[in-house]
Amino acid sequence: MKKCKQCDQEKSIDNFxxxxxxxxxxxxxxxxxxxxxxxxxxxxxxxDQYKKYTKTYRNKxxxxxxxxxxxxxxxxxxxxxxxxxxxxxxxxxKSKEYQKKYYQEHKKPLTTK
Length: 113
Ligand SMILES: [Zn+2]
Fold this sequence. Notes:
By secondary structure, the chain is an alpha+beta fold. The protein is about 60% helix and about 15% strand. Among the domains are: about 1-35, no CATH class; about 45-90. The structure holds zinc ion (ZN).
Protein backbone atom coordinates (compact mmCIF):
# COMPACT_ATOMS: atom_id res chain seq x y z
CA MET A 1 0.00 0.00 0.00
CA LYS A 2 1.04 3.54 -0.71
CA LYS A 3 -0.30 6.87 0.39
CA CYS A 4 -1.10 9.37 -2.31
CA LYS A 5 0.45 12.78 -1.78
CA GLN A 6 -2.56 14.53 -3.22
CA CYS A 7 -5.72 12.82 -1.94
CA ASP A 8 -4.06 11.39 1.19
CA GLN A 9 -5.61 7.98 0.62
CA GLU A 10 -3.87 4.65 1.07
CA LYS A 11 -4.07 2.77 -2.18
CA SER A 12 -2.59 -0.43 -3.53
CA ILE A 13 0.58 -0.01 -5.56
CA ASP A 14 -1.11 -0.70 -8.91
CA ASN A 15 -3.01 2.56 -8.46
CA PHE A 16 0.25 4.39 -8.99
CA UNK A 17 2.28 4.86 -12.15
CA UNK A 18 5.75 3.38 -12.17
CA UNK A 19 8.63 5.76 -12.52
CA UNK A 20 12.25 4.83 -13.08
CA UNK A 21 15.06 6.91 -11.72
CA UNK A 22 17.53 7.54 -14.47
CA UNK A 23 20.72 7.64 -12.42
CA UNK A 24 20.65 4.23 -10.77
CA UNK A 25 17.82 2.58 -12.73
CA UNK A 26 15.81 1.77 -9.64
CA UNK A 27 12.07 1.61 -10.04
CA UNK A 28 9.84 3.67 -7.87
CA UNK A 29 6.26 4.83 -7.93
CA UNK A 30 4.62 8.15 -8.53
CA UNK A 31 3.74 10.03 -5.37
CA UNK A 32 0.34 10.86 -6.85
CA UNK A 33 -2.21 8.10 -7.58
CA UNK A 34 -3.64 7.45 -11.05
CA UNK A 35 -7.02 8.94 -10.12
CA UNK A 36 -5.38 12.18 -9.04
CA UNK A 37 -3.25 12.20 -12.18
CA UNK A 38 -6.42 12.06 -14.29
CA UNK A 39 -8.01 14.86 -12.26
CA UNK A 40 -4.87 16.95 -12.57
CA UNK A 41 -4.79 16.42 -16.32
CA UNK A 42 -8.43 17.42 -16.71
CA UNK A 43 -7.89 20.52 -14.63
CA UNK A 44 -4.81 21.37 -16.59
CA UNK A 45 -6.74 21.08 -19.83
CA UNK A 46 -9.10 23.78 -18.60
CA UNK A 47 -6.34 26.28 -18.00
CA ASP A 48 -5.42 29.09 -20.34
CA GLN A 49 -1.86 27.82 -20.40
CA TYR A 50 -2.99 24.56 -21.91
CA LYS A 51 -5.34 26.23 -24.39
CA LYS A 52 -2.55 28.53 -25.43
CA TYR A 53 -0.25 25.56 -25.85
CA THR A 54 -2.66 23.62 -28.08
CA LYS A 55 -3.32 26.73 -30.13
CA THR A 56 0.40 27.27 -30.68
CA TYR A 57 0.80 23.61 -31.51
CA ARG A 58 -1.96 23.77 -34.11
CA ASN A 59 -0.53 26.94 -35.62
CA LYS A 60 2.88 25.33 -35.85
CA UNK A 61 1.40 22.32 -37.59
CA UNK A 62 -0.47 24.56 -39.97
CA UNK A 63 2.84 26.05 -41.04
CA UNK A 64 4.24 22.59 -41.58
CA UNK A 65 1.25 21.60 -43.68
CA UNK A 66 1.63 24.72 -45.81
CA UNK A 67 5.33 24.07 -46.13
CA UNK A 68 4.73 20.49 -47.23
CA UNK A 69 2.24 21.65 -49.83
CA UNK A 70 4.75 24.16 -51.12
CA UNK A 71 7.52 21.58 -51.22
CA UNK A 72 5.20 19.26 -53.06
CA UNK A 73 4.44 21.97 -55.57
CA UNK A 74 8.11 22.77 -56.15
CA UNK A 75 9.00 19.13 -56.62
CA UNK A 76 6.06 18.24 -58.83
CA UNK A 77 5.19 21.37 -60.78
CA UNK A 78 7.03 20.21 -63.88
CA UNK A 79 5.73 16.66 -63.92
CA UNK A 80 3.14 15.60 -66.47
CA UNK A 81 0.85 14.33 -63.78
CA UNK A 82 0.80 17.65 -62.00
CA UNK A 83 0.22 19.59 -65.21
CA UNK A 84 -2.63 17.30 -66.14
CA UNK A 85 -4.21 17.61 -62.73
CA UNK A 86 -3.86 21.37 -62.91
CA UNK A 87 -5.42 21.64 -66.36
CA UNK A 88 -8.22 19.34 -65.22
CA UNK A 89 -8.78 21.62 -62.26
CA UNK A 90 -8.86 24.71 -64.44
CA UNK A 91 -11.74 23.20 -66.39
CA UNK A 92 -13.87 22.86 -63.28
CA UNK A 93 -16.65 25.29 -62.39
CA LYS A 94 -14.99 26.08 -59.10
CA SER A 95 -11.84 27.17 -60.85
CA LYS A 96 -13.68 29.22 -63.47
CA GLU A 97 -15.54 31.01 -60.75
CA TYR A 98 -12.30 31.73 -58.95
CA GLN A 99 -10.69 33.11 -62.08
CA LYS A 100 -13.71 35.29 -62.75
CA LYS A 101 -13.62 36.62 -59.22
CA TYR A 102 -9.89 37.23 -59.51
CA TYR A 103 -10.44 39.18 -62.71
CA GLN A 104 -13.11 41.36 -61.15
CA GLU A 105 -10.95 42.13 -58.16
CA HIS A 106 -7.68 42.76 -59.94
CA LYS A 107 -8.88 43.90 -63.36
CA LYS A 108 -6.55 41.45 -65.03
CA PRO A 109 -6.69 37.75 -65.79
CA LEU A 110 -5.20 35.26 -63.39
CA THR A 111 -1.94 34.17 -64.91
CA THR A 112 -1.00 30.63 -64.13
CA LYS A 113 2.58 29.81 -64.76
ZN1 LIG B 1 -4.70 10.44 -5.12
